[in-house]
Amino acid sequence: MRWHCHPSVKTTESLLQRLHEIGVECKDDLTLIKIEDLEGILRPIQGRKLLQAFIAGPSAAVESPCRAGLCRSHEMETSGTCVGDEFQIPWHKMPPALIQALTDQKRPTPLLRKKMKTETASSIVKGDLPSTLCIVALGETVLTAGHFMVAVDQIIVNDHLHSPLTALSFFFATYYVLNIQYPHTATLALEFIQRCLVGINPERGSKKEQKRGKKSYNTHPRILRLLSDLRDFETPWKL
Fold first, then answer.
1. Is 89 helix (H, G, I), strand (E, B) or coil?
2. CA neighbor of 230 nearest in space, from 190, 185, 197
3. Contact residues for 153 (Cβ-Cβ < 8 A; gap 6+)
4. Using one digit for the tens of pLDDT, what is the confidence trace for 118-148?
């Protein structure tokens, strides 16, 4: 089972709030920002990169979040690249009211800012998805995230999920709707959900991946042992 968290969403939101607090009203004001104005939000190197982008031109900071130091550090450590290197904001998905507010150099309403944040984050995430079925959590952690998406084969199939339970339910149901086998690395977790939480207990067959040369079980012995332990826990009196 795959959960992908994108902490840059919260960081970007905090950065936008700070820019508003210090009095940034138009794109020309971005060149007047000092490193001290970004303390507590960005690390020193990230802040310097962002300021360099602002000095080079405000559009540079928008077109390349990686050069501005807003991409996830573990991406650069593991792959050497960032999804933001060639990222373009999906303006065609933004509400006309948002476009008009930006054109007039006015601060968009909270609802429009939320829409812009969600659409931008969704577009960033789509370029960094695994080929397997997964849940994408937009937030610092799965527990604190406020927006979720489910993807299959690097394609977002639902991007309007607002609770981890709803995301997990949609995620699990997708295995049956699209007839996908459980991946080997998540077989036990998914089979537990299937048999213990959802109540799907076929007498024959299994959705786990079958590997040649290995003994196949209708129900994995670890699941049976866990079910037995749960029954013992619910019934403490044993003879």
1. coil
2. 197
3. 131
4. 777 667 666 677 888 999 887 777 777 888 8
Integer Cα distance of 180 and 134 in angstroms: 12
Count of CB atoms situated within 10 Å of the CB of 156: 15
Q: Give the bridge partners for 137, in sequence order.
A: 5, 148
Structure tokens at 31: 């060149």
Beta bridge partners of 152: 155
CA distance 128 to 82: 9
107, containing H or E segment: none
Q: How many CB atoms lie within 10 A of CB 137?
A: 25
Q: Are 36 and 166 in contact (CB under 8 A)?
A: no
Q: Which of 178, 171, 176 is nearest to 136 (CA)?
A: 171
**Continuous segment of H or E residues that includes residue 237:** none
Q: Where are the alpha helices (DSSP H) in the chain?
A: 8-21, 44-56, 58-63, 73-79, 96-103, 110-126, 164-177, 187-192, 221-234
- Tell me the torsion sign for CA atoms 217, 221, 226, 231: positive
**Which residues touch 105 (CB under 8 Å, ≥6 apart)?**
25, 26, 27
User: What distances in angstroms separate CA 12 from CA 41, 97, 158, one per listed residue?
Assistant: 9, 21, 23
Q: Which of 99-108, 135-144, 151-160, 170-179 has the lowest mean pLDDT?
A: 135-144
Residues 13-67: tens digit of each pLDDT: 777 788 888 888 777 788 888 888 888 888 888 888 888 877 775 444 444 433 3
The larger pLDDT score, comparing residue 192 to residue 220, is at: 192
